[in-house]
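Quick one, tokens below. Sequence please?
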């Protein structure tokens, strides 16, 4: 029973649709050439119809499961409709309507390059949806890696000059001045270190000599036999004199007046006399 009602309902729907088509009259077909249209309102209507068809096909081409051939056909149909839309827009402008071409934007890739210039089918051909991932098309949207040319050993040797080995580093005189100042500071520091170590050594020798003299003095008569009636300098005074002579010799040989002044200032800071 339900099946018969469905059949009757479908027949009624077809009947009502047929009556509505009769009232509307025969379905008007879009002119093949835009130049055949003489009415501005009609031209705008056909342009809107083309835009709706483009939207439907663009939604359909997003499906990657349609197959390569169907995707290519859809992309060609969309580009054909886009060209037809351009014809109608020019016709609308000729009939005194608005200029839609000024508001249309260019289709670009992720780097701002116009896609029409990257394709091989002329200016204005665009790929939509799954068509961008087709073999031979995907490479158009990928940036080519920058090739770095490797230099040969011969080319690298040709670029080597005396500056590479530092042969001309001293020509401007800057390096010599820097090295001279650094050498003076290092020399002064070495002299101060040597004097400090020498003083410690002399103190150690003096302490040893004092202990030896104390041991000999406690030996009774043998210690009293060796009495010096001539005033002679002791071991410490002799070593201090030798140290002073060596120091003066080093300073006269290596140090300048400016360096001596720096040394005096350093000694005053270190509380040395």
């Amino acid at each position: 029973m339900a099946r018969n009602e469905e059949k009757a309902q479908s027949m009624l729907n077809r009947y009502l649709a047929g009556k509505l088509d009769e009232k509307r009259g025969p379905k008007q077909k879009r002119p093949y050439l835009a130049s055949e249209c003489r009415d501005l309102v009609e031209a705008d209507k056909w342009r809107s119809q083309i835009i709706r068809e483009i939207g439907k096909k663009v939604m359909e081409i997003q499906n990657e499961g349609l197959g390569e051939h169907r995707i290519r056909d859809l992309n060609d149909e969309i580009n054909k409709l886009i060209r037809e839309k351009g014809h109608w827009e020019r016709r609308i402008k000729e009939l005194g309507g608005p200029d839609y071409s000024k508001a249309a934007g260019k289709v670009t890739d992720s780097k701002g390059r116009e896609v029409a210039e990257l394709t091989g089918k002329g200016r204005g051909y665009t790929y939509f949806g799954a068509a961008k991932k087709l073999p031979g098309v995907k490479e158009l949207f990928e940036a080519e890696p920058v090739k770095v040319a490797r230099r040969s050993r011969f080319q690298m040797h040709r670029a080597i000059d005396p500056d590479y080995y530092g042969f001309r580093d001293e020509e401007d005189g800057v390096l010599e001045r820097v090295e001279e100042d650094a050498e003076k500071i290092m020399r002064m520091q070495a002299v101060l270190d040597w004097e400090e170590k020498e003083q410690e050594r002399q103190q150690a020798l003096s302490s040893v000599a004092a202990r030896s003299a104390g041991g000999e003095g406690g030996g009774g008569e043998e210690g009293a036999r060796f009495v010096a009636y001539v005033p002679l300098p002791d071991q410490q005074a002799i070593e201090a004199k030798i140290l002073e002579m060596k120091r003066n010799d080093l300073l006269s040989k290596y140090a300048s007046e400016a360096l001596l002044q720096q040394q005096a200032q350093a000694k005053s800071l270190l509380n040395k006399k």
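Confidence is low (pLDDT under 50) at residues 116-122, 219-224. Residues 153 and 159 are 10 Å apart (CA to CA).
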